[in-house]
Amino acid sequence: MNESNALERNSVLSPRTNNDLPGFLRTWWIAVRPFSFPASAVPVAFGTAAAAATGGAEINWGHFLLALFGMMMLQGAANIINDIYDFSKGIDREVYPVSGAVVRHLITPDQAKRGALLLIVCGSLIGLYLSFAAAWQVLIIGMAGIATGIFYSTAPFGLKYRALGDCSVFLAFGILGSLGAWVVQTGEMSWVPVVWAIPQSLLIIAILHANNWRDIAGDSAGGFTTVASLLGDEGSARYYSFLLFSPFALIVALMTGPRFVGLLPPLPHAFVLTFLALPLALRLTRKASRRHTNDSAEADFVALDGATAQLSLVFGLLTIAALLISRWVN
Asked: Is 262 exposed, middle or buried (0-12, 13-18, 19+ CB in 10 A)?
């Protein structure tokens, strides 16, 4: 850990007076980790745009905003729960730039549990409303997402500790987010938002993997298994590159393949816009490759999950723009 991170660690974990504690909003901003919200917000926006561009839906903006806020609330709850259990199991005791509020001693685990419960209740109420106002299938999709988010860290499954975290975020924040938003707008189930969401979902996995890659030593010492710990440092580097570059290959495949097979509509040609994000992916892999060279490179590696979330956001916005352009052109 470089000097700036060490200073940050010492400052946030040192005894504080009431006067120098961070404000209420800042504390909970840290707790819910909004830097990761593209993982939930982008799939909802993507599924909504796909419903308008391909599903023939007229966007209900009220339902879209409710679905968006509901997903972000549930992700914020999942982030807090993950922070609680990582801290309680002793595998998250170091403070990193993107750490949560429990490890920073800004809130207690009990306070964090109450905050997570409040977010789950609010997000669930939104989902319940949408299941009545839009389509009953929203309830099933929402329940699957909530269960995945809760059992990601908690007993009896603890999915993230059994190398199932990657599959969990792929499902909950990628596929289900896009499908749920599609159903909210169209009232019908479809494979289109599921398959089309796969490239973005891989980048969501990349956010988690960047975090787990950084935490290999701590997770292994705690007796927990992640995909990163199974692969090791070099294997994780290759897996990270795959997660960053395979979405671009899939975009090409989904633009061209369905035109010959015909099982699904092809991605619109406007999806070539997504290649504007390719330089950012290249930049991140270069940062990752230099992780052991000096203190500055080590600091970049520590913050790689936040930087990967930025790539996910850029890529996701480009896919949404491509869908909107295709609708306008048609």
From this structure: exposed
CB count in 10 Å sphere of residue 249: 11
Report the candidate in 99, 234, 85 with the shortest Cα–Cα distance to residue 161: 85
* pLDDT value of residue 21: 46
Handedness of CA 45, 260, 241, 278 (dihedral sign): negative
Mean pLDDT, rounded, of the chain: 85
Domain range list for the chain: 3-329
What three-state secondary structure class fits 9? helix
Q: Which residue has the higher pLDDT, 107 or 260?
A: 107
CA 96, distance to chain mean position in Å, is 18
pLDDT the model gives residue 95: 60
Beta-bridge partners for 225: 162
DSSP 79-115: HHHHHHHHHHTTS--S--TT--TTTTTSS-HHHHHHH
Rounded to an integer, what distance in angstroms lies between the CA atom of residue 127 and that of residue 131? Answer: 6
pTM: 0.84
Would you say how long the chain is, in residues?
A: 330
The sign one gets for the Cα dihedral 288, 289, 292, 293 is negative
Q: What amino acid is encoded at 188 in this protein?
A: E
Residue 285 burial (10 A CB sphere; 0-12, 13-18, 19+): middle
